[in-house]
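[Automated response] Your request has been received and processed.

Submitted sequence:
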Amino acid sequence: MSDALGSTLLQAAQQYLQRGWSPIPIPPKSKRPVIKGWPTLQLRSDELEQHFGGEGNIGLVLGHVSGGLVDVDLDCDEAVELAAQFLPATAAKSGRPSRPQSHWWYYSPNTETVKFKDPVTGEMLVELRGPGPQTFFGPSTHPDGEQYANLTGEPALVPAPMLTACVEALAERIIRQRHGALPQPPASTTSTPIRRIHDDDNVEARAIAYLDALPPSVSGQGG
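Generated structure:
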C-alpha cells in the first residue's frame, strides 16, 4: 500500500476522532478488528499515526464511546429501496459502489443493538447497530476490492424508541413483502437480540406516528 493511501487512512482517523468518534485499526483485507480491548478503545490523537500510518483498514466503535453514534445497516436490496419510507432523514449516509447509501447514521443515545432476520431464510435484513459492534468504514477497502466512502455528513439526532420502531417497521414491511404474513423464526443462537415481529404488533403505525412527530428538516442541522 502506498504512503499516500496510508496518509489518507491517517487523515480519516484524525477527522473521525475530531468529530468525537472512536476509530479503531483493522488489518488489511479484513473487516474484523484484532486489537485488544477494541469495544471500549478510545485512541488519543498522538496514537493515531502508530495505528493508521501504514497498511490497513479502519472501523468505528459505536455507542457511547463515539458520542451515541449508531448505524442502521441495510443488509438486503429491499431495505435499501424502502429505507427512505421508514427511517428518519439524516445527512449522514455511507456505503460502497455495489451498495451505496446502505448505512444510515444517527446520534441515538441508549439505543440497543438489534438484528432483524428473514424468519424463513435466515437472511439478515437490517441491523440497528449501537453499543457493542463496530462498523467498517471509509476509506477502508472491502476484501473484494471495493472502497468504502468516508462519512462526511452530520448524523441526525433521533430518540432511541423512535429509531428502534422505525427500523422494526422497515423489517416488517420487507417480511410482509416477501412472505405475505409474519412467520416466526426459530430460536436465536446469537447473543445479539433477534427481534421477532408478531402479526398483532402495529409496528408500522407506531413508526409513522414517530415520524409525523419529527420537526421539519433544517438545512445544515441533520434534520
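Summary generated for your ticket: Residues 1-6, 186-191, 217-223 have pLDDT under 50 and may be disordered. The longest strand covers residues 99-107.
If you did not submit this request, please reply to this message.
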